[in-house]
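Lab notebook page, bench 4
Experiment: in silico fold of construct C2
Operator: M.H.
Input chain length: 170 residues
Purpose: comparison with the prior construct
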Amino acid sequence: MKKIIVAFLSLNLLLLASNQERDLQAVFIGRLAQFVQWNHPKEHLFRITIIGNNPFGDLLNRLYKKKKIDGKSVEIQYITRLEEIGQTDILFVALENQQEIQKVILYAIKNSILTIGTQRGFAQRGGIVQLSFVMQKPHLVINHKTAQYSNIKIQAPLLAIAQEIIKGDE
C-alpha cells in the first residue's frame, strides 16, 4: 500500500512539473518575440501558430487575449498539417514525426517564420529556438544560422541568455 501511495504522489508531482513547464513555455513564446525582428510585411495581427498536438489547451488564448506583441493584437491558431500554416510570425512545432518536422522547418525558413520546438535536437535540425526548462529556468539553444537564412534578426539580449548558439555568417 505504501508503494502505491508513493507512486501516486510521484505521478502527481510529475504532472504538476509538466504543467508548470507547459505554462512557462506558453509565457516564453511571447517573451521571445520581444527580442526578434522579422523582415516581412507588417500585418495587423501578430500570429502564433501551434502545429501538431496542442500541449497548451486554451492557455495561449487566455494569456494573449488582451496582450499586444510588437504593437499588434495576438491571434492564436492551432493546426495539424503543413498546408494550413499560411502567414504566421511564430510557429511552435509540437509534431513528433521527424520528417514532418523537417518539412515544417524548411517551410518556415522560406517564409521568415520563427520556429520554436521542445524536441531534442530541434535547433540542430534547423529549428530556430529549442526551448526547455531545467528547474524552472529556461534552457535555450538558438540556431542563429537558420535565423539569418530566414531573414530574422535575434537581438543580443536573447542570444546572451542562450546556453548554446549555432552560429552562421557574422
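Observations: The longest strand covers residues 45-52. The radius of gyration is 17 Å.
Next step: discuss at group meeting.
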